[in-house]
Amino acid sequence: MPAGGDGLNQLKVVNNRIFSITGFSLLFAYLLSFLFEGQVLYSMLAYHNVKDSAYILAAIVAHFVGLFSCGYLIKSPTAAKYMMLGSMGVCLIATTPFFFAPSVLWAAGLIVSGYAGGCAVASWGYFLKAFTPKNQRIKSCADVLIYSNIIMIAVNVVAINLSPFIGLILSIFCLVAGTAFIWALPAGTEEIWSEETENKRYGDIKKPLLLLCLFVFVITINSGLMYQVINPAFEHLTGLVSWYWAVPYIIALAVMRNLPMKAKRSRILYIGMAMIMGAFISFMLLGRHAPDYLVVDTLMLGACGIFDLFWWSIIGEMLDYTENPVKVFGIGLSANVLGVLGGGALGVAITSIRLSGAEVAVIALTVVCVTLVMLPPLNTQLVMLLKNHAYLAAYDRMSGMQQTDIIRQMKTLEELTVREQEVLQHILSGKSNREIAVTLSISESTVKTHARNIFSKYNVGSRAELISTLLKNQSYT
Predict the structure, then answer these.
(1) What CA dihedral angle connects 162, 301, 374 and 274, to 10 degrees?
(2) Confidence at residue 40, expressed as pLDDT on a 0 to 100 scale
(3) Is 426 in contact with 395 (CB distance < 8 Å)?
(4) What is the distance in angstroms between the CA of the first residue and the CA of the last residue of the chain?
(5) Residue 391's pLDDT is what?
(6) Residue 189: helix, strand or coil by DSSP?
(7) Whose CA is closest to 320, among 425, 433, 432?
(8) By the 8 A CB rule, do 347 and 419 touch?
(9) At 263, is the secondary structure helix, strand, or coil?
(10) By the 8 A CB rule, do 114 and 63 touch?
(11) What pLDDT, on the 0 to 100 scale, is given for residue 242?
């Protein structure tokens, strides 16, 4: 019976993860195909001969505000689930005016659905933390980006080559189907949202998150330039653009997803930066024919895939260090949207003063140079934050005898009691004070007292310092 029960629980966890990824992929496909610079929206505006810049800007600004602010409104797992469901419902209602002639409801619908869409995306941060194991989040992030872009391509092809109204129907279908999958998920438990957070256990998340957001903002300026400068230059290649645009992005994601866990992904970031430089240099030197587009788009979108998975997965790892995954996930992704806005504004300025392709390339290369300067300190901050994650994984792979030897090798100012040794073992296993209290059948306050005594005897000030002291420079077999 116990084995069967464990198998059933494991199956339930896998199903929850699949439902979470599927539901979010469908939501994101709606956002990519319609709301966020989507070809369905562009096609609808072109069909009615409506100037698109104000509409597009309103939707993106509202989306940024939704991403950034949602975490300040959500205080529990249940609230996260119903915020996501409610936001998807609002998007559905706000999209329906586009079946009719242009009116003020179009602008209102884009603003409302933009904000609601941002809230829905941010809220998924809770499900990513709750239903995907720590060492698998890079794969979950890659999966949602790959699947949503594949669906987006299909919707775009229909909207551009068949009918924008059918494309709109498909976008809405994605939204409805995604809502059904999210509805089927449990709200989770309060343990995911407990006051005993990894943030308090391992250190301050604010500085590395801020630096990551700054890096994302700067590098994404090139995405905004792409939307405003590169894409319009190839808009005459309608058929090719409708299906090929995101193909290099998907391929880059698939390659990054399936790299061995020990692979040095940070080095691939430099390859991505070289690809961005190559894209803008190619744009400057080449013509505006189909082969030229294939070169420029392959380099640019391949780089976007590399960078998007980098910061999505890093944000996913950071969720273990915060009491509110919705806030961290939303703020992290809002930096991406802000970069698109900044790059878009720069692109509009470039277009208005008619800069040459060479001058655009110089601006883009300057942005890349800035990000190259930022990457080393960013890497340092992330390693300082996330290295304890690797230490814990290494500790979990040890045998019980190896774990005991590691503890005995370290000198303490005063000998640990038997109970303190038990608490220390559980601390190194990554358990929270609440989990340790349940395991040892003692109160949480007693666990905290034992923890303080352990820190004092090892002459450290936090769990992070304790783990580093015990596990660094150790070799494992």
Answers:
(1) -160
(2) 93
(3) no
(4) 35
(5) 46
(6) coil
(7) 432
(8) no
(9) coil
(10) yes
(11) 84
* pLDDT beneath 70, residues of the chain: 1-14, 188-204, 261-266, 351, 355-361, 372, 375-376, 378-413, 430, 462-465, 467-477
Gap between the Cα atoms of 433 and 431, Å rounded: 7
Q: The pTM is what?
A: 0.77
> E strands, 118-205, where?
none
d(CA 30, CA 152): 7
Question: In terms of residues, how long is the chain?
Answer: 477
Q: Where in the chain is the domain with CATH 1.10.10.10?
A: 398-471
The C-alpha R_g of the chain, in whole angstroms, comes to 24
**CA 304/CA 442 separation, integer angstroms:** 50
Quick one: fold of 398-471?
Answer: Arc Repressor Mutant, subunit A (1.10.10)
Give the residue from 353, 351, 256, 246 showing the smallest Cα distance to 307: 256
**What is the rounded CA–CA span in Å between residue 386 and residue 404?**
24
**Residue whose pair of structure tokens reads 């905004």 in the numeric block:** 224
CA angle 318, 187, 444 (to 5 degrees): 65
Return d(Cα 163, Cα 160) in angstroms, integer.
Answer: 6
Q: Quote the pLDDT of residue 165.
A: 95
Q: Phi first, then psi: give them for residue 276, nearest 5 degrees.
A: -60, -45
DSSP letters of 374-395?
A: HHHHHHHHHHHHHHHHHHHHHH
Reduce the DSSP state of residue 261 to 3 states and report it. coil
* Residues in contact with 202: Cβ distance below 8 Å, sequence separation at least 6, in sequence order: 321, 385, 388, 462, 463, 464
Amino acid sitting at position 431:
K
| Tokens at 211, concatenated | 């630096």
Are 340 and 227 contacting, i.e. CB atoms less than 8 angstroms apart?
yes
Task: From residue 423, give the alpha-carbon distance in Å to each of 198, 245, 410, 475.
Answer: 17, 54, 16, 24
HSE-up (13 A, CA, CB side) for residue 256: 34
In our burial notation (b when 16+ CB lie closer than 10 A, e otherwise), range 343-376 reads bbebbeebeeeeeebeebbebbbebbeebeebbe
Q: What pLDDT, on a 0 to 100 scale, did the predictor assign at position 412?
A: 66
**Start-end ranges of CATH 1.20.1250.20 in the chain?**
12-191
| CATH number for domain 194-386, candidates 1.10.150, 1.10.287, 1.20.1250, 3.40.50 | 1.20.1250
Helices (H), ranges, 286-321: 290-318
pLDDT for res 83: 96
- The one-letter code for the residue type at 285 is L
What gap in Å lies between CA 282 and CA 293, rounded to an integer? 9
Q: Which CATH class is domain 12-191?
A: mainly alpha
